[in-house]
C-alpha cells in the first residue's frame, strides 16, 4: 500500500521531446545515417545501438560508436546539420494533444520543462519549427545540465534546481518514450516516471527500466496527475 504523503503532489513535470511530445517520423535514424556516411561509415551495423540508446545525449552515442573525441564531434555536427535540414523540410510535427497537454499542466499550476538529448541548436530548430517558443516554462539540453544527458538524472535535477518548482523530488513527474527517460527519472527520485507508447520503446522495456506508469500518449498525463488520481497513486 502506497503511503506517499499528500504534500508530494506533482508540482514539476519534465517532458521529453522526440517521441513523447514531438513526432519526428524517424528523423533521428535518418540524421544518424547521414552523419555516419559523412564519416565514411556504413550506418546499418550501428542502428541497433542507436535504437537501444534513444533518449541519450547524441554526442555520448557518437563517442561510443566512433571512439575518439574528434570523430565523435564531427559525427555530432553532421547529425545536427542533417536533422536541422529534415526539420526545415517539414518532417516534424507535434504529437496529438501534446501542446494542449502542456497548456493544461501549466494551467493547473504546475511547472513544465521540455528536455532533450539533442544539442541546443537542434532543440531550438525543433521549437522554432513547431512554434513552441514559450510553450513550456523552460527547455533543457544536456549542455544545460553540465554535459551529461540521460540515463543520468542530471536533466531532471537541473529542471528542479532551475525552476525551484518543487521542494521534494517526489513532487516531480517525468514522461518519456525511452528506457533512458525512465532510468533518468527513476535515478532522480521522481515520484512519477511515466512511459508513453508513441515513440521508441514498448511497455515491457519502459516498465523494466523504471516506469511507474505506462500511458498510451502524453495526452493522458493530465488525468494521471489530477488531484484525485494522485491521491490514490
TrEMBL record:
Keywords: Hydrolase. GO terms for biological process: DNA repair. One of its GO terms (molecular function) is phosphoglycolate phosphatase activity. One of its GO terms (cellular component) is cytosol. The keyword Lyase does not apply. Pfam families: Hydrolase (PF00702). It comes from the Bacteria. This is Phosphonatase-like hydrolase. It comes from Streptomyces solincola. The lineage of its organism: Bacteria, Bacillati, Actinomycetota, Actinomycetes, Kitasatosporales.
Amino acid at each position: 500500500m502506497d503511503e506517499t504523503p499528500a504534500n508530494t503532489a506533482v508540482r514539476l513535470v519534465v517532458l521529453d521531446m522526440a517521441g513523447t511530445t514531438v513526432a519526428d517520423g524517424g528523423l533521428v535514424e535518418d540524421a544518424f545515417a547521414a552523419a555516419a556516411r559523412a564519416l565514411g561509415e556504413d550506418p546499418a551495423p550501428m542502428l541497433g545501438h542507436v535504437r537501444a540508446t534513444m533518449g541519450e545525449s547524441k554526442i555520448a552515442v557518437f563517442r561510443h560508436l566512433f571512439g575518439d573525441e574528434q570523430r565523435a564531434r564531427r559525427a555530432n555536427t553532421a547529425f545536427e546539420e542533417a536533422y536541422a535540414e529534415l526539420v526545415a523540410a517539414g518532417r516534424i510535427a507535434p504529437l496529438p494533444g501534446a501542446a494542449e497537454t502542456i497548456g493544461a499542466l501549466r494551467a493547473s499550476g504546475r511547472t513544465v520543462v521540455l528536455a532533450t538529448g539533442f544539442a541546443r541548436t537542434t532543440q531550438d530548430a525543433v521549437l522554432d519549427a513547431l512554434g513552441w517558443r514559450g510553450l513550456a516554462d523552460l527547455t533543457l539540453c544536456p549542455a544545460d545540465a553540465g554535459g551529461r544527458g540521460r540515463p543520468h538524472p542530471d536533466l531532471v535535477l537541473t529542471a528542479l534546481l532551475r525552476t525551484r518548482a518543487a521542494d521534494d523530488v517526489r513532487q516531480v513527474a517525468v514522461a518519456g518514450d525511452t528506457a533512458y527517460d525512465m532510468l533518468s527519472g527513476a535515478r532522480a527520485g521522481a515520484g512519477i516516471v511515466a512511459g508513453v507508447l508513441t515513440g521508441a520503446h514498448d511497455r515491457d522495456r519502459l516498465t523494466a527500466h523504471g516506469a511507474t506508469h505506462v500511458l498510451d500518449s502524453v495526452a493522458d498525463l493530465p488525468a494521471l496527475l489530477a488531484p484525485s488520481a494522485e491521491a490514490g497513486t
